[in-house]
Amino acid sequence: METRVLVWLDRQPSLSVVFLCFGSLGRLSVERLKEIAVGLERSGERFLWVVKNPPHFDDADFNSIFPAGFLDRTKERGFIVKSWAPQVEILNHESVGGFVTHCGRNLVLEAVCAGVPMVAWPLYAEQRCNRILLVEEIKIALPMMESTENGFVSSSEVEKRVRELMNSDEGNSVRRKTQGMKDEAKAASNEGGPSCVAIFKLFESWKLKK
C-alpha cells in the first residue's frame, strides 16, 4: 500500500493534494465519514484520505461506509487508504499542499517540518488547546468549525475549509507562514541550532546525575 500511495502522489500536480489523517485513534462514526466524503466530493479538490474503520465496522466494506457511488465518482482525483499510511513521506511529497488534522502533537510537528498548512479539526484531549495555538496564535492553520455542541462538522464546512486552504488568499497566507516555520525548524535542528543545543544540554545533565 505504501508504494501505491507514493506512486499515486507522483502523478499529481505540485501542491494540489489535501491530505486527511486523524491519527492512530482517529476512528470516526459512519455519519462523520459520510459528511467528510460529501464535502470532499463537492470541493472538487484532489485528496488523499486515511480512513480507519468506524466503531463496530471492524471488517467494513468501504462501499457501505461512504455515500453511494462516492468511490467511483472521485476515483480520478482521490485516493483512500485503509488504516495506515507513511505520514512523514506523504507530508513531504511535492504534490501535497494541505493537511486536515486532528491537531495531535506529533502530526502537527511533522506538518510544520514539511511546511504544509493545515485545517485544524480537534477530536479529543489537548487537541482543542492545540487548535487555538495553531489558528489564533501561530496562524498556520484554518479552523474547522463545529455546528453542534457534540462536535459535529457538516459537509458544507468540510467543503468550505478544504477549498479555502487550497485556493484562497487566507490559505496562501497560512501556507507562507508555515513555510517560514519549516525553515526555522530546520535551522533549529541543525548543528548549533537551539533544539540541537537543548538536547545536548539534556544529555550532559544526565551525565552529571550519574
Structural class: alpha/beta
CATH top level? Alpha Beta
**Count of domain modules:** 1
Main beta-sheet annotation: 6 strands, parallel
CATH topology tier name? Rossmann fold
What count of helical segments does DSSP give? Answer: 10
CATH architecture: 3-Layer(aba) Sandwich
CA radius of gyration is 18 Å
**What is the overall pLDDT average?**
87
Amino- and carboxy-terminal Cα gap: 46 Å
**How are the strands of the biggest sheet laid out side by side?**
3-2-1-4-5-6
Question: What is the percentage of strand-forming residues?
Answer: 5-15%
CATH H-level superfamily title: Glycogen Phosphorylase B
Low-confidence runs (pLDDT<50, min 5 residues)?
Answer: none
Order of helices and strands: HEHEHHEHEHEHEHHH
What's the overall geometry? globular
Estimate percent helicity. Answer: 40-55%
Q: What is the number of E strands? A: 6
Can you offer a commentary on this structure?
The protein has 210 residues and is of the alpha/beta class. The chain has one domain: 3-Layer(aba) Sandwich (Rossmann fold). It is built from ten helices and six strands; from the N terminus they run H-E-H-E-H-H-E-H-E-H-E-H-E-H-H-H. The protein has a six-stranded parallel sheet with strand order 3-2-1-4-5-6, with helices on both faces. Helix 2 crosses helix 8. The longest helix has 21 residues.
Summed up:
The protein has a single domain (2-209), classed as 3-Layer(aba) Sandwich (Rossmann fold), CATH 3.40.50. The chain contains 10 helices and 6 strands; from the N terminus they run αβαβααβαβαβαβααα. With 210 residues, the chain is of the alpha/beta class.
